[in-house]
Amino acid sequence: MAARRKLNIPLIKSATMFAVGGPIGFGATLCGVGGQVAAAPAIDFLLGLRPERNAGTSLLFALAAAAASVAAAHVFGAPVDWLAAVLLAIGATVGVAATAAICRSPGALKVRRTAHACAVLLGVYVVAEALRQRVGGPQTLALEWLSAPAGLLLLGAVCGAASSVLQVATGLLFVPALVFLAGVPVLDSVVMANLVVAIASVLPVAGHVARGTADRQAGMWMVVGGVLGGAAGGWTLALVAVDAGVVALVWFGLVAMFLGGWQLSRLS
Q1: Which of 17, 38, 42 is nearest to 29 (CA)?
Q2: Which residues are CB-neighbours of 267 under 8 A, at least 6 positions away?
Q3: DSSP for residue 101
Q4: CA distance 268 to 156
Q5: How far apart are CA 121 and CA 264, in angstroms?
Q6: What residues contact 252, with CB distance under 8 A and at least 6 apart?
Q7: The dihedral of CA 124, 130, 135, 136: what is its sign?
Q8: Sign of the C-alpha dihedral computed for residues 160, 166, 169 and 173 taken in this order
Q9: How far apart, in whole angstroms, are the C-alpha atoms of residue 29 and residue 15?
Q10: Cβ contacts of residue 13 below 8 Å, gap of 6+?
Q11: How far is Cα 161 from Cα 115, in angstroms, rounded to an integer?
């Protein structure tokens, strides 16, 4: 009787992570939220990496997927405001650094519960406004000063601080702020949010790579899948520009509702 062949576990893990990385990269970049939000729990469930290695791998995934998304969107004709994204990323970094002590406060837990409940409501509102675009478009304040360099820095700082304290993805704040406050078109806002994710991830990822805390085995295949998924997301963003971004805005609202509910359940 022939001996049974052993399963190639490393190959199975790599193939699984590659297959998972594609859809996560596609979905995250299509709404500008940032791939690490979904990548981290997927890595924890499928690979069981230590927290620091999980963080390094999920951040690398987010950087790669977001960068691929922006590159593909640009190649297929979507506008990319590089200066605005850099200013938003700088502001967000300052906001996160300024609230580092506050986000560790025990009293922030109650505020986070409220914030995640509000994220669900935000998702409902965004979907409703997205559907209104077919009969006149979403109501926006179109504050022109927010599009100026100082306004973008301030907007980035406020979003960065809020995301740090409330533990929500910055994209959940950037996209609606750019669309409904600054009056930036939906497509431009999502592409810009992806670019901010990529820029803001460079230094943290460099630190993780230097310390060797980014998984170089199955986790790296997830990153490869994320690149392909992100590129497909960027291509899709360029395609949906013809409907003024309704698809991207509806998808953003659904993701916001899901993430808000999921985070709320974890804090309960």
Answers
A1: 38
A2: 109, 112, 113, 116
A3: T
A4: 29
A5: 12
A6: 31, 32, 33, 123, 126, 130, 175, 176, 190
A7: positive
A8: negative
A9: 22
A10: 46, 47, 217, 218
A11: 13
Q: Which residue has the tokens 């600054």?
A: 182
Helix (H) or strand (E) holding 93: helix 82-98
Q: State the 10-residue block means of pLDDT for the chain, 268 residues long.
A: 70 93 93 88 89 93 96 91 93 88 68 76 81 60 85 93 82 88 88 93 91 90 96 89 70 83 70
Alpha helices in 133-185 (DSSP H): 149-166, 171-176
| Selection from 146, 184, 169, 129 nearest residue 259 by Cα | 169
List Cα–Cα distances, 74 to 67, 239, 246, in angstroms. 11, 12, 19
Output the six-digit token pair for 208: 């993780």
Tell me the residue type at 211: R
Three-state secondary-structure class, residue 221: helix
Buried/exposed 93-104: b ≥16 CB within 10 Å, e otherwise: bbbbeebeeeee
Rounded to whole angstroms, the Cα distance separating 114 from 105 reads 16
Indicate the DSSP class of residue 4: P
Query: What is the rounded CA–CA span in Å between residue 90 and residue 83?
Result: 11
pLDDT 10s digits, 9-55: 889 999 999 999 999 999 999 888 888 888 998 999 888 889 899 99
Q: What is the pTM of this model?
A: 0.87
